Every structure is written in C-alpha cells, then in structure tokens.
Amino acid sequence: MGLEKILSVAGKPGLYKLITQTRTGFVAESLLDGKKISVGLRSNVSVLSEIAIYTLDEELPLRDVFLKIQEKENGEKTSVSHKDEKIKLEEYFFDVLPNYDEDRVYTSDIKKIIQWYNLLVENDLADFSKEETKDTEKK
Asked: Where is the DUF5606 domain (predicted)?
C-alpha cells in the first residue's frame, strides 16, 4: 500500500489507512489501534504522499525523507522517540536531512515525521522505494 492511501486527520492522533469512500466522506482505519472511523468531507485531512518538507534548496517529498530515515536505520524503527528532547530530535533530523530549513521545519513537524515513520514500520507499510518506481513509470 502506498502513501497515497495513508492519511493524517487533524485532531486525531496517529495515521489512518483509507478503507473506502462514501457519499459524505470516507471510512479510515487507525494504524494505532485498528479502530475504524468515519471522516466527513469538512475534516482537515492530509494524504502523506502530498506532504513535503522544506529544505534550503527545495521542498522534499515526505516519501524521500522516509527513505533517508529508512537508510539510516536499516529499515528498523528510529533510534530516537518522538517524545525525546527538542535538541535530540533536531540533531537526529539534521543527520537524516542536513539541509532542512530550520526556520520553517519546527520540532513538532520532526516529532510527527518520526512518529509516522515508526507507525509505518510497525504496520509493515514502510516500502517507500517501490512507490517511487511507480511514479517514474507514470511520467
């Protein structure tokens, strides 16, 4: 399953897997506890494939950031927790992405990225390289 089917819903913790669309929105399953929720069209929802991280040169797709974390951690969960201190999180993220824009990427963003990556690894959804080849085939 690609990042195109993984969602972040504002006001709800963790990530959600898109199950099906309905007339009034869609049904999603939590990657944290497996519970299904109904999400209306008015809810603020972000698809992970559409999220990018600011760097000093460009906006880097979240998939590429996850790939860099995956390379650093050899496919395992991160060596830091999203609950660690600000300085530890920033040092870790600087190791992963040395040219990230420190003025526009906040600690809260780094926490989310680390938490999301770990959730995807726990749920065996961390195959980011395969999705990239699909994108290049489309072009």
From this structure: 3-48
Per DSSP, the residues of 20-57 read EEETTEEEEEETTT--EEEEETTS-EEEGGG-EEEBSS
Helix, strand, or coil here: 67?
helix
- The string of DSSP letters for 83-98 reads TS-HHHHHHHHHHH-T
| pLDDT per residue as tens digits for the range 111-139 | 999 999 999 999 998 888 654 444 444 44
Which are the contacts of 58, defined by CB distance < 8 A and separation ≥ 6?
Answer: none
Q: Indicate the DSSP class of residue 17.
A: E
Computed over its alpha carbons, how large is the radius of gyration of the chain? Answer: 15
Q: pTM for the complete prediction?
A: 0.87
Could you report the per-residue pLDDT of 7-42, keeping only the tens digit for each? Answer: 999 999 999 999 999 999 999 999 999 999 999 989
